[in-house]
């Protein structure tokens, strides 16, 4: 039963995180949103959650590259919502380049946002979860937490690291009702992937439609994008009573990508 539980979803102003926040709120979960967007869009989003789902909703501007801001986001969740029962570590960025040309600042940013931020947020929520004897942590990894792809060195390293962090978080809290799982999506059509489609279209001098077909055809056997709501629905399951026996699981939602 997740009605009345309090959740933080990082990177929930866009894409997968936004869909996850909608799915949790639709089940009656109060939500602390996070991520970048302009002030008006954030105000409208918070208002939409409050009106549509009749839940408590607020927004933390925490930058996932800054550990102190991550700690403050968790403190805000405890202050404004009353507790943090569910943490979804979703914020993430991508940058593609061969390793020998990979810009150092891009490497640092990807490791900070896609991996270290998940450590800092997990560390910050655990004491409250332990005190209350309940917690659900879900890390949005990627198929790139399990397999590699050329030109994604930092992303693949960060997501493999996140899979490892998931297992350790699960083991250290296994006797409490605190679970930690990772979801590894294949291609989901979001702004993060649209940029890769645009880059591919430009590099191969093809239309965006052809670039999309090639992108899906190269890796994802069902040749369809995964819907972000399908990931949200899995998180609703994991956070509910029937998810309590699942911990340390690394779950793919990938249209067959890693079956190859
Ligand atoms: P997106 O670009 O649509 O959304 C990313 C979100 O993260 C946004 O809300 C953005 O504001 C936020 N964000 C970025 N940098 C931040 C920072 N420093 N501090 C706080 N928030 C920040 O991307 P998406 O495709 O929805 O990706 C969400 C997650 O899913 C990422 O971790 C990504 O690696 C993972 N993922 C995506 C796909 C896919 O195909 N789209 C596949 C597998 C995994």
Describe, in plain words, how this protein is organized in 3D.
- By secondary structure, the chain is an alpha/beta fold.
- It folds into 2 domains: 6-186 and 226-253, NAD(P)-binding Rossmann-like Domain (Rossmann fold), CATH 3.40.50; 189-225.
- Helix content is 50%, strand content 13%.
- It is built from 8 helices and 7 strands, in the order βαβαβαβαβαβαααβ.
- The chain has a 7-stranded parallel beta sheet with strand order 3-2-1-4-5-6-7, with helices on both faces.
- α4 (104-132) links the parallel β4 and β5.
- The longest helix is centred in the middle third of the chain and has 29 residues, at 104-132.
- It is globular.
- The N and C termini lie far apart (36 Å).
- The mean pLDDT is 97.
- The structure holds nicotinamide-adenine-dinucleotide.
- The site of nicotinamide-adenine-dinucleotide has 27 residues, from α1, α4 and α6.
- The site of nicotinamide-adenine-dinucleotide (NAD) has 27 residues, from α1, α4 and α6.
The secondary-structure element order is EHEHEHEHEHEHHHE
Total strand segments: 7
> Mind describing the biggest β-sheet?
7 strands, parallel
Low-confidence stretches: none
Shape: globular
Mean pLDDT: 97
Strand arrangement in the largest pleated sheet: 3-2-1-4-5-6-7
- Counting DSSP H or I runs of 4 or more residues, the number of helices is 8
CATH topology of the largest domain: Rossmann fold
What would you call the structural class?
alpha/beta
Residues in helix, % = 40-55%
Provide the number of structural domains. Answer: 2
CATH architecture group name of the largest domain: 3-Layer(aba) Sandwich
């Amino acid at each position: 039963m997740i009605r009345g539980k309090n959740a933080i979803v990082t990177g929930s102003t866009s894409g997968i995180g936004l869909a996850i926040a909608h799915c949790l709120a639709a089940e009656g979960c109060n939500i602390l949103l996070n991520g970048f967007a302009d002030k008006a869009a954030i105000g409208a989003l918070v208002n939409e959650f409050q009106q549509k789902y009749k839940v408590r909703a607020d927004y933390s501007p925490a930058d996932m590259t800054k550990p102190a801001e991550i700690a403050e986001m968790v403190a805000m969740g405890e202050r404004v919502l009353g507790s943090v029962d569910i943490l979804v570590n979703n914020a993430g960025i991508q940058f593609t380049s061969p390793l020998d040309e990979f810009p150092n600042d891009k490497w640092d940013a990807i490791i900070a946002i896609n991996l270290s931020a998940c450590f800092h947020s997990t560390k910050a929520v655990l004491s409250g979860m332990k005190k209350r004897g309940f917690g659900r942590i879900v890390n949005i990894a990627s198929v790139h937490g399990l397999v590699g792809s050329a030109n994604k060195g930092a992303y693949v390293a960060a997501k493999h690291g996140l899979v490892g962090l998931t297992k350790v978080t699960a083991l250290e809290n296994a006797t409490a009702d605190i679970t930690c799982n990772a979801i590894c999506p294949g291609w989901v059509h979001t702004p993060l992937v649209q940029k890769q489609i645009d880059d591919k279209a430009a590099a191969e001098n093809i239309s965006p439609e052809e670039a999309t077909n090639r992108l899906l055809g190269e890796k994802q056997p069902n040749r369809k994008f995964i819907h972000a709501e399908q990931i949200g629905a899995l998180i609703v399951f994991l956070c509910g009573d029937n998810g309590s026996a699942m911990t340390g699981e690394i779950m793919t939602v990938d249209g067959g990508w890693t079956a190859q």
